[in-house]
Amino acid sequence: xxxxxxxxxxxxxxxxxxxxxxxxxxxxxxxxxxxxxxxxxxxxxxxxxxxxxxxxxxxxxxxxxxxxxxxxxxxxxxxxxxxxxxxxxxxxxxxxxxxxxxxxxxxxxxxxxxxxxxxxxxxxxxxxxxxxxxxxxxxxxxxxxxxxxxxxxxxxxxxxxxxxxxxxxxxxxxxxxxxxxxxxxxxxxxxxxxxxxxxxxxxxxxxxxxxxxxxxxxxxxxxxxxxxxxxxxxxxxxxxxxxxxxxxxxxxxxxxxxxxxxxxxxxxxxxxxxxxxxxxxxxxxxxxxxxxxxxxxxxxxxxxxxxxxxxxxxxxxxxxxxxxxxxxxxxxxxxxxxxxxxxxxxxxxxxxxxxxxxxxxxxxxxxxxxxxxxxxxxxxxxxxxxxxxxxxxxxxxxxxxxxxxxxxxxxxxxxxxxxxxxxxxxxxxxxxxxxxxxxxxxxxxxxxxxxxxxxxxxxxxxxxxxxxxxxxxxxxx
Length: 477
Hints:
Layout: H1 3-6, E1 10-11, E2 14-15, H2 18-26, E3 31-33, H3 40-44, E4 57-60, H4 64-76, E5 81-84, E6 100-103, E7 110-113, E8 118-121, H5 127-135, E9 139-140, H6 151-157, H7 164-167, E10 174-180, E11 186-190, H8 195-201, E12 210-217, E13 219-220, E14 224-233, H9 237-248, E15 255-263, E16 278-286, H10 290-296, H11 298-301, E17 308-309, E18 312-315, H12 316-319, E19 332-340, H13 345-355, E20 364-369, E21 391-399, H14 405-419, H15 440-444, H16 448-458, H17 473-476
Parallel strand pairs: 4-6, 5-6
Antiparallel strand pairs: 1-2, 3-4, 7-8, 8-12, 9-13, 10-11, 10-12, 14-16, 14-17, 14-18, 15-16, 15-20, 19-21, 20-21
Helix pairs in contact: 9-13, 13-14
């Protein structure tokens, strides 16, 4: 142990010495890292390269007992705590400065019960880990669209993707969770056990404890789905978006179609003269019979005069990874997000104007279409705040050089403010950057008060505050 680095581990008047840290390490199956360890920098690196924080300790957990020991140690020593699952969250809350980072990434087990249609998943697993296991048996959990995302953060914030309209949010398929609470107890949360905690976990983020195992309901799917991209010239954006909006009115739950607007990457199926030019992409997936999917996608695919149409049967696990090359680690990222009930003409005009002012070749606007099964769950049934919204906008600023920070962040913020009058005020917390702490209450709308009350019961000292933080109710009042 490096005593100089230990001097930085301070919270209030509490100092943590080498002997205490060695005792912690001796009780773990995993390991404790500090700044002098060779793997420290790799362990603290996360997806968003804008985040460069240095925990005094990183506890790499091998199982639930390690998580219990780490939480008790942090609580006893009044340490700032961050929790890393996949490390993909835009806000970068997986890593803290000067405190303890509880790293769950070694905990990657996925176990499938085919007969019961259940999957038990540890919090370090990624969406790719889950898909590889479940698709081996023709089963799936509705998750997100980037396979390197961690299942833990995605689930706790809600979770939506290509099959959500048919099967619900990720949290709608959560059956139970094993949770280490702020006092270091391991409890089970489900509809029949610690029901208030289970309600809060389904959309309330990492505010209420550390989940060490998720139990999911599985659905029969695949191995192939009808999926792919239809690429349009951006000059046709207004007409395409208006017809897209109309086509969705009669779309079956099995069909999901989202919009991406950006400069064209060098995709092999695009003519070279389009590389680097502004495009509008309709990305679609039909999670049912392929022949029925051909009929259901016909209206969307007949819009306008596309540059390319590569919608075809694909392995579902492969389609889940289709956007991975555009979302690799190492870039600087900043997001802004709104929920919309409708994609109005005024909103479309704002989006088109913003694409005309893209600050860089990797910046984009993404529009997700929800509804379907999501809207058939009552608003108060889970902590997830917005069951009525049909569209989620994510303004994704992405760039490489720190010198572009001002232009890219400014572009995202300007678009966010311009679209605000047309939004409903809630937000998907997984899309909120670190500077939106003052937006959390509005993001959860009518569910925020109950979240604060549950927070007071399970984490009255707000140990788990490196997140889009819900404060304990007595503090928030």
